[in-house]
Amino acid sequence: MKDTASPLPDHLVPRQGELIMFENNRFLERMSRMRPGTVLLVYLPVIAVAAFLSITGGTGFLKTVGLMLAGAVFWTFFEYFFHRFVFHFNATTPFQHKILFTIHGVHHQYPNDRDRLVMPITVSIPLAVLFGLLFTSMMGNAGWGFFAGFAAGYVSYDMMHYAVHHVQNSRFALFRKIRRHHMAHHFRDTRQGFGVSSYFWDLVFRT
């Protein structure tokens, strides 16, 4: 096991309930909270439009489907990388610990807060625009198909993350394994188990 990702600070023991992060700013507090339905409402049309632009832009249906699959697979790697090296970066100063708590630590301290299980759209939309521009600049119209799959992977990640925290009994063995994997990350060792929608890359990198 490689100790390349630091655990969250020792005081981040999981607690029940929820935390008001911005007591003096109701707008920021509201923007820091998000329900899964909002993610679906925003991103399902985005995925559909991106796929349509890919198909009608000369890529074609079958190639677009392939690009979407590739984008979804790439998402799983990005999810792992981002969770491991951004959400669990090695904070060494009080300011860095504050940043870490704001972007991810609050979820570890209040893991069952229903309003902080998916990324706020105020953060995800700028990132989506950035990746959409990146993919289309690299691949032309075909980049829309890749982006559609990438965005679908993101939506699947958000839905899975919400489910593993709030669906305790499932008849699907794979879901139960994914849930155990993520719960171990929360309650056993935050330096391992960075995949949420899949634990494939944890197996590859032995985390």
Task: Write a compact overview of the structure shown.
With 207 residues, this protein is an all-alpha fold. 65% of the residues lie in helices and 0% in strands.
Fraction in beta strands = under 5%
Helix content: 55-70%
Q: Over the alpha carbons, how many angstroms does the gyration radius reach? A: 18 Å
Number of helices: 8
Distance from N terminus to C terminus (CA atoms, Å) equals: 7 Å
How many β-strands, per DSSP? 0
Task: Give me the strand/helix succession.
Answer: HHHHHHHH
Structural class: mainly alpha
How would a crystallographer describe the biggest sheet?
none
Name the poorly predicted regions.
1-8
Cα shape? globular
Q: Give the integer mean of the pLDDT values.
A: 89
Structure description:
Helix content is 65%, strand content 0%. With 207 residues, the chain is mostly helical. It has a domain at 49-79 and 118-204. The chain is globular, with a radius of gyration of 18 Å. It starts with 25 loop residues before the first helix and ends with a helix.
Chart the SSEs and their pairings.
Blueprint: H1 26-31, H2 36-59, H3 61-85, H4 94-109, H5 121-139, H6 142-166, H7 173-187, H8 200-204
Helix pairs in contact: 2-3, 2-6, 3-6, 5-6
